[in-house]
Structures
1.
Amino acid sequence: MKIIIAGAYAIGTYLAKLLSRNNQNIVLMDESLEHLEQIGSDYDLMTMNASCTSPKSLKEAGADKADLFIAVTPDESKNLAACTLAKALGAKKTVAKVDNYEMVSPELESFFHEKLGINSMIYPEMLAAKDINNGLKMSWVRQRWDVHNGALVLLGIKLRETCEILNKPLKDISGPDDPYHVVAIKRGADTIIPGGNDILKLYDMAYFMTTRQYIPYIRKIVGKEHYVDVKNVMVMGGGRTAVRAVKTMPEYMDVKIIEKDEQRCERLNELLDGENALVINGDGRDISLLIEEGIRNTQAFVALTGNAETNILACLTAKRLGVRKTVAMVENVDYVSMAGNLDIGTIINKKEIAASHIYQMMLDANVHNVRFLMTADADIAEFIPVEGAKITKKKVKDLSLPVGMTLGGLVRNGEGYLISGNTQIEAGDSVMVFCHHVEMKKIENLFN
């Protein structure tokens, strides 16, 4: 597949490195030679020092033969223009990063698609806000991911001493009749796609697939019933991600935003007028300010400044002051695993979130909802098998699935079901697949 990425910034560089590992034909364009040089020579891709809004440069990059054109420069207008030009030159699919939530409104979708030739637009701050709120709704869960409006639910949970199912083989605690499957385990630096003989250990990050009605049961067996629900939230940093998160938080949550820039505080008061939020001008690293503003009675602390180190340290401070749930925005990929090991609750990385949505466009039409679980170094995706697909011809236990791959559950006629060895997958099912170091294309072949 030929893919052109315009913009060697955070998302573009991360995506280029990721896709180059999957043997894709990648061209990374940028007007800055310095940005291109930073990607190094360790990746199998071509770089091009040129403007993405130049028809001549787009032709030289091969836009007329591109299967996917991705514009992720910091300039929204440039991204939209580049996608329109690339589509006119013959690119099959285009995706543009935008910085204004109004651009992704459903009313404008057909205009951008039909008139401008832009297949998809991503607003990373909105995607990040959704993940933040998913983390806040359940204080005892590190990550939550709903499939088909909760027909299936993925829960990432840090296991503590109160967990009832530690040190027992999974085949004894998670059989065909049990209402959950453990589909991945992060243990230290290792990721495990578990089999029946694997066990859960203290401080593991375990990923459970279940259905919505059994979430209270999962909460009980992992010993998290004493975690209080989040009502009071303190947010450090008043950027666009914070605004989107506050605007989409449940109404029962009371929010305090601490922002050190006075002019930004004034703007926040305008943007959040009518929301259940109080804007405070101050430094979120100031412990006396945090105490004065009631952090000891706060159930969640969300650090969303542009500095990963500041966010991590602020969350550690909040933990020390008694906050149970912390969320940190960590844009530096190298810090993600460190933040997890330091017991930061939910890690938000906009590059990973945006890349997941873009990556989905590379795959066939029967692949949906791709996510990278950065903390577990694993991928999760929803596959829909076609009529006659290999995966529908035998029961799961007889399929000889690739090492590093497991099937968590499926949705059939709107109902969620967990998958066991005796499950017979049918064409049209939505099947949740987990994989660690397995090429997505290899998995696609099972469903086509």
2.
Amino acid sequence: MKSYTAICFFLAVALILFPLVSVPKAKATFSANVSGESLDEDTIYEAAENTEEENVKVLKAASGQVTELPLREYIIDSVAAEIGATSEEEAIKAQVVACHTLLLYKKAHKDESIGEADISDTSQKLLTQEEQKEKWGENYQTFREKIEKCFDEVQNKVLCFEGEPILATFFSISNGKTENAENVWGKSLPYLVSVDSPDDKLSPNYSSTFSVSAEDFKKALEEKGASAEKEENEWIGDVTFNSTGTVKSITLCGKEFSGTDIRSMFSLKSATFSLKYEDSKFIFTVSGYGHGVGMSQYGANEMAKKGNTYDEILSHYYKNAVISTQTQ
């Protein structure tokens, strides 16, 4: 009888203690903060670690080395490089959320070409603390604290679509409209669709020109399979445009190229351009700066100047995405 009683006692203790030792470490989830309701269980995205403890493995493309940074340091360094510290605070907050979201997307959609790294510095630029000190000089402390403050205020905010972090791309200046994702990367995404960004046209860096000699122009085209047999003034053929104003296609020396192909070939600032032949040179006149998909950093800053908050900025540039809160 005593033996039976002892067995029951130990079984009872085990049942009490077992849940305490077997429950795994809680993972972070995202809940929608627009309506105040949580996302459905089947669409909740689970983050890898507590954001305060998480480290980010960054591939330095130039050296091929992988370095590890605390998440907070990584995001702050990225924001410092991408939008800078002289921007409006609400624009900086929007950039913090975009950088954090893009990182989570990259981690969830692993690129095998970067090996063990979570992200490459070609996807997001970084300005290290030493580089910040050199660039900002006596303003370093003020600028650094400004970005840190913005980070701390939105560190748990993430852009989601159907419960998962989105591909939150961004760029410098649009041509007045942002670009549809399919026009650049060939894949349609419901949250990367064209929106108006008219203030971008006020940027001092909105327009640029690029000229190339006929010889170099010919060489670049022939390397891509074109045949420059006619006179130079006959090399430029038909041009078509996307609804956003970017070049969809252009025929050069009898071969059709996409606007993004030409932008890459000649290192143009954007795929919104016109081309003419003059004085033995081919001259590109370009509008905007960047691929044009997602958030315009110049446009975001102009919205902030007008009183728009970071969430209003993000909702404008990332249609159909939800600003969610990362919870532990």
